[in-house]
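Escalated from tier 1: thymidine-5'-diphosphate holo job.
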Amino acid sequence: MEIQFIELQSHGDSRGSLIALEEGENVPFKIKRVYYMFDTKHGVTRGFHAHKKLKQLAIPMKGSCRFLLDDGNDKVEVLLDDPSKGLLIDSFIWREMFDFTKDCVLMILADSLYDESDYIRDYEEFLKRVANDS
Ligand code: TYD
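Tier 2 regenerated the structure:
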């Protein structure tokens, strides 16, 4: 499975760093929604779903966490620990997020508004959908 990281240009100087996110520039989709997870409790794993259409870009603003990405054939574990590196997550990718550090703030940009009907929350259904579509 191909893991797509986007390198986000950091404008750093003696004062610190600044990163701009721009639709159609370093973010390869229309930004319709932004949400972030923080204060994630020790030992928690979240996610456990795939999306039918949604594309997302995950950026660890602070701290770190790990993603398990699964396209139905391969599973890959990725560490997100750099606010200048965004992880692009396409549709039909099962994801689980874990190992959140106490200070982790994980921001997600998404190309659609929240829509529960776009979720596949059952892993067996996910595998069936992937098998039928290939
Ligand atoms: P949930 O889907 O359980 O998060 P995750 O899959 O990342 O573990 O979402 C938690 C709650 O937040 C759930 O009640 C739905 C709600 N929610 C929104 O209202 N808008 C959103 O954009 C998202 C991602 C979740």
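The chain is about 10% helix and 40% strand.
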